[in-house]
Specification:
By secondary structure, the chain is an alpha+beta fold. The protein is 33% helix and 25% strand. It has helices spanning 4-12, 61-70, 96-110, 113-121; strands at 17-19, 26-29, 32-40, 48-57, 75-76, 86-90. A six-stranded antiparallel β-sheet has the order 1-2-3-4-6-5. β2 and β3 (32-40) form a beta hairpin. The longest helix has 15 residues, at 96-110. It is globular. Residues 124-131 have low confidence and may be disordered.
Length: 131
């Protein structure tokens, strides 16, 4: 199963990625976030950065709902993310190969067209191939 170190390794293997200084992890391409640590908020308490949960950009509401309904053991959301194309993934429940697919897809959706062509040129041979 995956962890925060896997998120970091997979995200940084993609071209033009910048890691933003944070309590957990926060990765951007062209100043757009595509995967970061879940900032859990509880009423009356300070937020807690959860590095065991990743927030992923998924593109649109249809994709979000497909993930939430299709794999509820892996993905969830909160009311704070209503109407946003974001899902949370439980890292302990996802394989590294699946996480690779999710992080790469999130990068593709956030990267400008001019940068997407660099993905094939920047492929990381040590990254797992989805089964």
């Amino acid at each position: 199963m995956a962890d925060a170190d896997d998120v970091r390794r997979l995200a940084l293997a993609l071209p033009h990625v910048v890691e933003i200084d944070s309590e957990g992890f926060d990765f951007r391409v062209a100043d757009k976030g595509f995967v970061w640590s879940y900032p859990e908020r509880r009423p009356g308490r300070p937020r807690v950065i959860r590095t065991d949960i990743a927030v992923l950009y998924v593109g649109d509401e249809a994709e979000k709902q497909a993930l939430l309904l299709g794999e509820p053991e892996l993905f969830f959301t909160t009311p704070a993310y209503d109407g946003l194309p974001l899902v949370m993934v439980r890292l302990a429940e996802v394989s590294v190969a699946r996480l690779h697919e999710l992080v790469t897809d999130a990068w593709r959706m956030r990267a400008p067209d001019a940068l997407r062509a660099d993905l094939d040129d920047h492929a990381d041979p040590s990254s797992p191939t989805p089964a």
